[in-house]
Amino acid sequence: MNDQSITSAKLYWLIENISQYEKVAVAYSGGIDSSLLLYAAKTALGAGNVVALTLISSVVPTYAVQNCRTLLKESIFNGISHREILVNPFEWDDFTKNSGDRCYFCKKRMYLTLIDSMKNSPFFILFDGTNVDDTKEDRPGRKAVQELNVKTPLLEAGLRKNEIRILAKKVGLSNYDLPSNSCLATRIPTGICIEEEMLNRIDQAESFLVREGFSGCRVKPYESYTVIEVQASQMEDIIRPENRNRIKEFFASLNFLAVALSLKHR
User: Fold this and answer.
1) In whole angstroms, what is the distance from residue 124 CA to residue 133 CA?
2) pLDDT by residue (tens digit) across 98-151?
3) Which of 5, 143, 155, 251 is a good FRET partner for 15, with 20 to 30 A between their CA atoms?
4) Are residues 134 and 216 in the same domain?
5) Looking at the domain assignment, is residue 184 inside a domain?
6) What are the helix (H) ranges across 56-97?
7) CATH number, position 151
8) Residue 188 belongs to some domain of the structure
């Protein structure tokens, strides 16, 4: 079998594996991983037996929430119920302290919130979009997923990120080339206390860059300067004088005064 056939076989296995369940909930962020997982769940079980659960909080970029809502209106997801669940991580000391285990504590609390929201509903199995590539990096949040017995069908199917993109394009998911994303708290260096006001400013800065055409960007503030990370294909555009000046002015309005562009692209 060639690579394309192997990838297609993995999708078939994924759908067959999900078919063993009756009703499932998918932790849905609007990213490519959870989107393919949601598509597979609908294909396996029917739209009426699948619900998409989206966590809304100050750590989720505004543009990501908007993108998530837009995607779920597409015909490929017709009939799937969508629930948005509010959480406030600033109520958790182990989040604001921002230790090396912050992601573990945050993920566990957030997924416990999702699980709790399912108690009085028939959707008692929670799916997460972890894939094979996620296991190759140090991701403390995976420990929380495992401890809570959240199912990871993409990982079970042996799907890597590039294969997920190939399959997403093949089945007609419009976000197949969407850059990967992460919560806004990852922009703050470990050990620096996380403040809501700072996350709001980062959110505004990144949302501005997305509107300017720089999707998948990162804005990382440090003590005396701020670093912008963009994709390799965007490097030339972002340093054009007209773009650079608009960015400089907008960032200054957010009190990000010393702004640098990272030479290490995303």
Assistant:
1) 27
2) 999 999 999 999 999 999 999 888 888 999 999 999 988 777 888 999 999 999
3) 143
4) no
5) no
6) 62-71, 93-96
7) 3.40.50.620
8) no
